[in-house]
């Protein structure tokens, strides 16, 4: 019976998380573009939340399993995660997703496709979604969905 209550708790926690994620995405249906200042602020908030979750939640929990010794598994997992993020960041920087059929846009500023007229909003093919690599002042790339 205890197992069923734990499964129910996990289900409810997952459901609340899914609903919160959906509610958090609603403003992005109404706003097409953010200024660079907003973009940097939102990325900073998101990264701060992830760092806080890692430092205060996961590392503390990992230290409980060390039984007073050196946390070799936790350190190994941490270093493996950092290495994987760095390797895949470098690999993804080398991939060019743009083709002649689907050119990567300049964040919706420039018309796309052959014969696109900047005065005609229908000719910019703004409905297409493509992956792009956006560079910020720090030089690190952030992959995002752009229209």
Describe this structure in words.
The protein is mainly α and 147 residues long. It has a domain at 96-147. Helix content is 52%, strand content 8%. It has a two-stranded antiparallel ribbon with strand order 1-2. A hairpin with a 5-residue loop joins β1 (130-135) and β2 (141-146). It is extended and about 50 Å long.
Order of helices and strands: HHHEE
Mean pLDDT: 74
Q: Give the helix/strand class.
A: mainly alpha
**Measured on Cα atoms, how large is the radius of gyration?**
21 Å
Q: Unreliable segments (pLDDT under 50, ≥5 consecutive)?
A: 123-147
State the helix count. 3
**Count of DSSP E strands?**
2
**Biggest β-sheet: strands ordered side by side in the sheet:** 1-2
Kindly estimate the percentage of residues that lie in beta strands according to DSSP: 5-15%
Biggest β-sheet description: 2 strands, antiparallel
Give the termini distance in whole angstroms.
Answer: 50 Å
Q: What is the overall shape?
A: extended
Query: Roughly how much helix do the residues carry, as a percent range?
Result: 40-55%
Keywords: Membrane, Transmembrane, Transmembrane helix
Region (Disordered): 99-132
Biased composition (Polar residues): 123-132
Transmembrane segments: 6-31, 38-59, 65-85
